[in-house]
Amino acid sequence: MEKPYLHTNGHGGCGETEALTLSAASLSEKEAQIAHHFAQIMALLGLDLNDPSLQGTPARVAKMYVRELFVGLCPENAPEIRLFPNTYGYNQMVIEKEIRVRSVCEHHFVPIIGVAHVAYIPREYVVGLSKLNRVVDYFARRPQVQERMTIQIADFLAEKLQTSDIAVVIDAKHYCVSMRGIQDEASRTLTYAFRGAFQEKEVQDTFLRMVGL
Ligand SMILES: [Zn+2]
To answer: What are the tens digits of pLDDT across the range 199-211?
Structure first.
């Protein structure tokens, strides 16, 4: 019987090399267990784990989960926040906009893809700008719901930057909305946290205008 998923596109030698690097020996104990269980899911779906194209998939998925998509589950991966004295007395908002959000919906394990806009008003300290991107990425790289991710980013920044003047907006597409269920490919989800001065209309309006919302 013809099984469409058995078709490979003949990627030759590079597939073999990859299979070698995906041997069980290269996996951590946790990754090996995830690979074992994912192989069972694939088998239950009727996939042939002896197929050259599929045999490395359980290990590949396990490594992807542990080393990439869900690295934010380990507190030791939280970004180090180094502050610099605000010697120049900058007291307007600092905005980092259109920060890439790549997360995974914890209800369906499919992607959440979008952007975050983050702002704070410095007091005695300023932070290296790329740290704001890293904070968003850290909280995105775990199974998430967008509402909680928004709060987590705001809480973390308020603590680390030693200011309550924090704004976080996340604007994202959820593949659990576009690929399944209602299958609405156009809609996006917006969530926000406005803390401290960002609850004042004028400050909030300035922030929203700056990020184009
Ligand atoms: Zn979902």
So the answer is: 999 999 999 999 9
Residue 17 has pLDDT above 70, yes or no: no
pTM for the predicted model, two decimal places:
0.87
Pairing status of strand 83-85 against strand 94-105: unpaired
Q: How far apart are CA 122 and CA 132, in angstroms?
A: 13
One domain, residues 52 and 117: no
37 is catalytic: no
Number of domain units in the chain:
2
Q: Which of 7, 11, 37, 107 is catalytic?
A: 107
Model pLDDT for residues 57-91, shown as the tens digit of each residue: 999 999 999 999 999 999 999 999 999 999 999 99
- Cα(176) to centroid(ligand 1), Å: 4
Task: Give the domain CATH number at 126.
Answer: 3.30.1130.10
Q: Is 200 assigned a catalytic role?
A: no
Closest residue by Cα to residue 112 from 139, 87, 80: 139
138 Cα to the center of ligand 1, angstroms? 19
